[in-house]
Amino acid sequence: xxxxxxxxxxSNTGTWMQLTVQNLLVLQITGSAAATGLSMSVQAxxxxxxxxxxxxxxxxxxxxxxxxxxxxxxGAVAFVTALLVALDxxxxxxxxxxxxxxxxxxxxxxxxxxxxxxxxxxxEDLPSAIGVGALVHSAGRLVGTxxxxxxxxxxxxxxxxxxxxxxxxFVASVVPFLxxxxxxxxxPTPGTDTATRPAxxxxxxxxxxxxxxxxxxxxxxxxxxxxGLSSVFGRNYGLTLAVLVTGPLAGGAGAxxxxxxxxxVGGILGAVLGARMRRPSVRLVGTLAASGALLQVAAGLSPxxxxxxxxxxxxxxxxxxxxxxxxAVLQTDPPARLRGRVLGVWSSIGTVWSLGxxxxxxxxxxxxxxxxxxxxxxxxxxxxxxxxxxxxxxxxPAPVTLPARxxxxxxxxxLDTAA
Length: 419
Fold this sequence. Notes:
This protein is mostly helical. It is built from 15 helices and no strands. The longest helix is centred in the C-terminal third of the chain and has 57 residues, at 339-395. The radius of gyration is 24 Å and the shape is globular.
């Protein structure tokens, strides 16, 4: 797990270097901010249509081989892009094609990497392992974003793509040396003898089975609803905070940079706290989402930048812990043979949120203003989630203890054991 975390840190650093440089590169080629958004959408779009197939492939194929091949392919795409940039042959069309290919490979790579990490720890340590993964992701984002500017400044744009390619090859080279934990080894994994896994025959391993399982699990549907509300109205801080800081609070780019730094620090603290969870649940995710939404309402009413900074830190912490808890539920609730397909369903749903959230939030800010969007968005999250939690508590029957009477048999469990 330590080797896997180190490899993921290197990979995340390279990925964020490339993402940062890619936005600058598109602006260089086209001079259009809209084209920058288009390149990001093209890379995300395959997840909407192909994640279900990618998840089914992860359930069917040997996991370590799948990760090694997908990482090597992602590295090859990065190297091709670096070569085209170095030769000054990259145009917008080829960049969009390469972005789409990256997105297609990622529909297999993302669930395969997540489930491979799960195999490296006992089942009871999965929430902690997911928390470590969130911490690695946040740290890689900070380091990669910072290194992008240095790399472009000293070595050029092509070097950032080449560095990302090397980071993928590093992950692929580590994979063959990973060994599953003993408890994980006892769980069925893809690629084992089908005679030992009769329930996982080729006929059963269909996309429809994953969809059916997800739709029939109320806790997964509830998790999707809570996460969807939070994603659309509460987590696009790069957009909402930028408008709030530079608008009503009269701050500049430096002030927004400070707020972004506090957000990143809060995300790291939340990942550390999330790694200490032992029994995450959908109820915990809902409680954290409602709490974060109320903090968002308070942030929207902030009279000054100093007050906003005080509120932004717990907002980021709550969001990070909630993400860790939700991911742990998502990756441990389905049986092992269905986890790839369930993650595929989740990826498709998440892509809808990521593509539709910013335009919806932009319209809300257009009509309600920056403060109004913060307050309204927070209430749209907190009200339904809090109502659902209260209804859940009322429906849960309380245990009734009857007084013992003469002649009653006590210690029934002990008598059963003795018998």
